[in-house]
Amino acid sequence: MERQRYSLFTLARHALTGHRGWKPAWRDAAPKERYDVIVIGGGGHGLATAYYLARNFGITNVAVIEKGWIGGGNAGRNTTIVRSNYLLPGNIPFYEHSLKLWEGLEQDLNYNAMVSQRGILNLCHSDEQRDAFERRGNAMRLQGVDADLLDPAEVRRMAPFLDFDNARFPIFGGLLQKRAGTARHDGVVWGFARGASDRGVDIIQNCEVTGFVRDAGGRVTGVETSRGKILTGKVGMAVAGNTSRVASFADLRLPIESHVLQAFVSEGLKPVIPGVITFGAGHFYISQSDKGGLVFGGDLDGYNSYAQRGNLSIVEDVCEEAMAIMPMVGRARVLRSWGGIMDMTLDGSPIIDRTPVPGLYLNGGWCYGGFKATPASGWCFAHLLARDEPHPVAASYRLDRFASGQLIDEKGAGAQANLQ
Amino acid sequence: MIISCPHCGLRDSSEFYFRGEAPTPRPDYEEGNVAFADHVYGRINPAGPQKEHWYHAAGCRSWLLVERDTRTHDFLSVTLASEQGR
Amino acid sequence: MTRLQAGGLIDRTKAVDFRFDGRALTGFAGDTLASALLANGVRIVGRSFKYHRARGILTDGIDEPNALVTLRGGARAEPNCRAPSVELFDGLEAQSQNCWPSPSFDLMAVNGLFSKIFVAGFYYKTFMWPAALWERLYEPLIRRAAGLGRLSGQADPDSYDRSHAFADLLVVGSGPAGLSAALSAARSGLRVLLVENDSRVGGRLLSERHEVGGQSGTAWAAAALRELAANDRVTILTRTSLFGAYDGNSFGAVERVSDHLPITADGQPRQRYWKIVAAQAIFATGATERPIAFGGNDRPGVMMASAIQTYVNRYAVAPGKRVAIFTVCDTGYDVAADLAAAGVEIAAIIDARGQPTRDVAFAPVIAGEVVRTFGRSLKAIEVRRFDGGMERMAVDLLGMAGGWNPNVGFASHLGKRPDWCDTLQAFRQGTLPGGMMFAGAADGALSLADAMASGEAAARRICDAAAAAQPMVVSAQASPHVVSDSGQKSFVDFQHDVTVDDVLLADREGYRSVEHLKRYTTLGMATDQGKAGQVLGHAVLAQHRDAGMAAIGTIAARPPHTPVAIGALAGVHRGEHLKPTRLTPTHRWAAENGASFVNAGLWKRAQWFTRPGDKDWLASAVREAKAVRSTVGICDVSTLGKIEIVGPDAAMLLDRLYGNMMSTLPVGKCRYGVMLREDGFVFDDGTVARLDDNRFVITTTTVNAVAVMRHIDFALQVIWPGLKAHACSITEGWAQIAVAGPLSRALLQDLLPAIDLSNEAFPFMAALAGEWNGIPMRLFRLSFSGELAYEIAVPTNHGDALVRALALLGRAYGCTPYGLEALGILRIEKGHVAGGDLNGQVTAHDLGLGRMLSKKKDFIGRAMAERPALVDPGRQMLVGLKPVDPAQRFSAGSHLFRKGAAQVASESQGHITSVAYSGVFDHWIALGLLEHGPERIGETIAAASPVRGTCIEVEVCSPVFFDAAGERLRA
């Protein structure tokens, strides 16, 4: 299929013919009998994996198999934050690699995913928290990542509308990553889909995996789907929200619990919040979309769920914390709330690794941080699938770390999913 | 969500603390790391009925063994965890 | 003026003055802002989101996409209020939005010139080069142009309330079906809660002209209200919008207590958030009329037919002088009849169903469709007659009667999607969540009689299982109507400017799932969340693909059903009430003594006590710490968790909870202990005191008090339910005060003359339970400071008396109150870990406590603590650190490097966990975690904080800076 370039020029040219000349952004493919690699999951991670398999390794006989419509899981349900402000050495290089990919993504994909580096400001409300921010900011700087520790006056210059003298949790300062920001989540999915499809990848929607095909030695040689059996050399799983379920088809038991996380958007408002702001005396984050909606969220509901919806007590917590840091939003209205299913690992960090089952590879356990990881996750999973060895920046995301103790526990919360 | 606590009756779930899927029984030390790793980190994480532990923190302080459907949030049974296996 | 001479549910004796965009206008009590604007002849009220097209009032309710205004001013400015749902009040001020300088003349309308380029998703295809211009140019322009109203930027000055309600039956909506259901249930004795979004009950009865049982519909509704109000088992909440359905038959609603008033009454909230639990719920939420897609269907003067009916009948406003009705259902005929009855000229009824269903006397009925419209605000329409030919008609008002979509979204809140119903030609709720029913128009019973029967039947089903078997009536409708080849923009989402062509473009580009369609075109993402136009948009797709609507599918409705103010959901939990504040037993005394307080979890603890002459907080803290080292100090430590464990197996339980052995602890003694999590990392530390054979009191850190209690309950109830022991938190029950310093024994001996506190009788780590002044008292010889020290506990309500007694007796010894900062200095001087050192990422071994872990017993965390990575000799371990140049200081969070090593991550060998200024040594000291730390005592290394731009040389030393032999605490 001939690639249609996107630009203001082509847009104007197509306008002359009433935009009747545009072709599908990606081919809606029917499954072939056999592929070199099958990626299960047409979310951001799966599509990015297929894109980079083709782009970086020339592996184009690839199928992305999606149960519903692409981007219908967490890729289309997140709060669109991109950042690399992590603490631990196992995490920072990976997320920084991701942020660098975000920075060049639109030009690479020729698709405007509206990556907007308006910064993320974490607020702190105690001396201990400021010390922890200093440690984290230093860890970032030492990895070559930008970080600034702000005093309250500097925070005030950035966001004068905050409630600095909150009667309960006044603001002690903040940690700023200027290069962080947001991206248009659906655009990311569609951009990767288009890029992968242009390079020959088959994107197969409405095709649900129901089992694995295995040979006598136990090796996975294909997948059973609602549209029949498809054979392959390697299967990569990128099925956030369903990781345990799909892994169970291969009798794997993973260190993952699936939890619901709610997110919220307000009615459209004129620009009022500059970047992403987080509240430190609870769990609350907020940004404003280009369309004007305040996009915000907080903690997990706290119980395992596959239902993609939450309950009122978290709605209340989130709104209380919104009012605690920016009481100007009292008269802004919540327009829509929704829930996504977070595959929470028991140390809060993801897994990109081979599994004990030959031929089956796992990309999962992104907790509630999967969106920002999308490009690097695809990049590194493609590397693993192509080379059979981990990419250096994802080398810590091993599945056996729970047995060995090489955990990547940013919060130090231990083996309880809803605390991570 | 509303949980029927065996001691306290119908109570809002905000009174309870959720710990997670009920783990396999705790092994003895002698059973070694592999058994413990499974106990601490192994999860079935079913999409459907799941056995899990809730704690009535703002009530009777009982640990409850709950069976709940993770697709619908329906509570199928609630019992005192201490009465399991007795 | 377009106000009719008579009729309407308005009070013509009460004129109400208001302002719109600064213009002084007048309406009547009972008006909405929309009806008053129409009555004043205001036709253009706002501009659309993308093309800035002029827009007029389209609907009569909360789903209004066009007439969005900002109400009030200053800090009370409220953006995006829907004019048809704003009750008029005296002095109301409203501003139009999204236009400059005015809705009639908007400079941003220039966007419309580029509308051929600004099609669905155009922004995904452009603004990519050069990359740096996105944040600097393109995005700011887009952001400025987008958005609707503007927040004031000031704190919301109003208050919000939160209430709970419980009922046997919740009825949502008080139209004919809702009232019938409520009456029937109330007569059966159920506790009924009736929730109505409007200021009056009646629903569509207020908008239409019906007779019910020989009286007018409004009179019947008023009678029903009287009956319900007289029943004390019925609660009626008007001006209350139910916004969400949640698990456990829970519902959220917001009552607008004061929004319809000029000023919030004293002591009243602006709004009240209701949490409702109801065994059963009947949703008589009505239906939303759907528009018809034809050219220029967004022109001011094109309105929903049902809205015209509301304005004519309820508000006595004729929004036009010469009217055409474009209909695909009988609603259009009813509306035309009402207009005719009000004396308005009807140009034509245009029925697109092919065969007109009714002949009417007052207007010609044309089988055909409206193709396009003309005029800045509507002046004419062009009609395509099915019998051939186009006809141009001069009208200033066009009603669209495109059929009805039942309001079934609440079922989707609980995960149950509606199904396409061919008879109804709309989505209807087939699968119901438990405890939820739909009735009336919301269930597809569109006629008055059917709706009332449906409501009553729904109520009966609750009381009578037999009734449940009866089938429900479903009205027949025509399919959603799309006019082709209009040559003008045909809108399916008015606010977001989504056109028929946009839907087709999305389809062409492969965005074929309705979710892709929504996300690519923004269809259904406006403030009405697609209630008006989404089904129509999907119908465009269905007709284009020649597919059924069932195959096209629908978008799940999500809460809130109608948007809810963030302030309302936060309720009373604002400012100091965000979280509970816990005060220590000595809080008042501390405040009297100059304490500054700091948050410690939910607690407020004294951080330092300012004395005259202290030049800053550090001077106060250093003075206090020195006093402890030289004389005696007192400090409230009540916030530490305290748990009493009793029973014949209590000692065995403690052996399993702690890494070290506790069963060997003699009665009357304390022991320091460390608890691990089952994953082998340090959970908490504290002391265990044995008061008698079967009774122990343990302490936890402040932050883990609750978690440790839960953990112990888990051990007792889940892991080892056979153990005969009980545990109970006594944190709130006892006030505990540390008395520390060389003179502490003398002071305490004065307080407790009857108890021998000599070193022989009450040595280090001794514990006893006794009395002070006849009050139960517990005394522990514990030292966090490294000095001779005690902790004394009395029941909480005596804590204030105790601290005052200690302070009074302590005058003789120079007794000094000390706060958290001094406590920090003292413990760091002694190398005790706390706070930032115990971050959940460290092992007992890391903290130099590895030898405490018993090898003789199993305990929680033992096995996993032996995992390879947890016993790696290369792990970072606790050390002390001091600046090589004593004049220099460092900060917690600095990273540690070999001297001369490059400051890059791969060279980082650890970090500083806590720092303090030591008055004893007159320089800064720190604790930190360092690779191979204990082997490197005496080595000079670098501590760098790139975010502060600092790097200094530090010497690695023992974490115990002061009195390493521990002589002072045993003195």
How would you describe the overall organization of this protein?
The complex is a heterotrimer of chains A (420), B (86) and C (971). Chain A is an alpha/beta fold and 420 residues long. The mean pLDDT of chain A is 96. Chain A has ten helices and 18 strands. Chain A is globular. In chain A, strands 1, 2, 8, 9, 10, 11, 17 and 18 form an eight-stranded mixed sheet that branches. An eight-stranded mixed sheet of chain A has the order 5-6-4-13-14-15-12-16. Chain A has a two-stranded antiparallel ribbon with strand order 3-7. Chain B is mainly beta and 86 residues long. Chain B has one domain: Folate-binding fold, CATH 3.30.2270.10. In chain B, 12% of the residues lie in helices and 38% in strands. Chain B is built from one helix and six strands, in the order βββαβββ. Chain B is globular, with a radius of gyration of 14 Å. In chain B, 30% of the residues are buried. The N and C termini of chain C lie far apart (96 Å). In chain C, helix 19 packs across helix 20. By secondary structure, chain C is α+β, with helices and mostly antiparallel strands. Classes of the chains: A alpha/beta (420), B mainly beta (86), C alpha+beta (971). Strand 16 of chain A pairs antiparallel with strand 30 of chain C, so a sheet runs across the interface.
